[in-house]
Amino acid sequence: CPIKCDPSDVRIGIDYLWRAAEGGDRRCMILLARYLDLSVNLLNTGHQPNFVTTPSDMLILPALHSFINSNSHLLLPSISPDSWSEAVGWYKRAVDSAIGSSTSGDKCTDEGLDAEGRYDAAEDLLPVYRILARMAEMYSVGGFGLKQNLSLAGDLFTQAGETASCALQGRLAARYFELADEAYLSNEQMSNN
């Protein structure tokens, strides 16, 4: 990109993103959560991300590929050591707003539609089942202000599987159910020790 990153512009952009998310913009909630989630990986070089899904699922903006490959990520403002707990909070709000806008009573999201039945670009950004799966991954690992909770991870993977199934993503739903079983088994083994 011919335009050079300015640290103050990055900070201002993140502030605007936060304000829009606070105002109820679901797309901004997702982007802010992703920023908090990814910044752990960008700013802590010793931390290896644990992705059950592919790392490309984490990179939701094409511009982020070039951002990560350059040294531009060094311009990111410092983040809280509790960034994952903050990210999970924003992910939850995004999921709640999607499920709250569902026109069906089965808690399945109407992928791609908002409360009025119009197109919702946030679903193109990241479907609800992927958000739930990422939250489950974060709880299964723990850290960065988020306490490891394998039981909750199993519940979230199960919910992700159900939502993916509603969205006619059968293989992905099966994978999420498998991961839920693994999380429940790990939780059981930890409680027996």
TrEMBL record:
It comes from the Eukaryota. This is SJCHGC06230 protein.
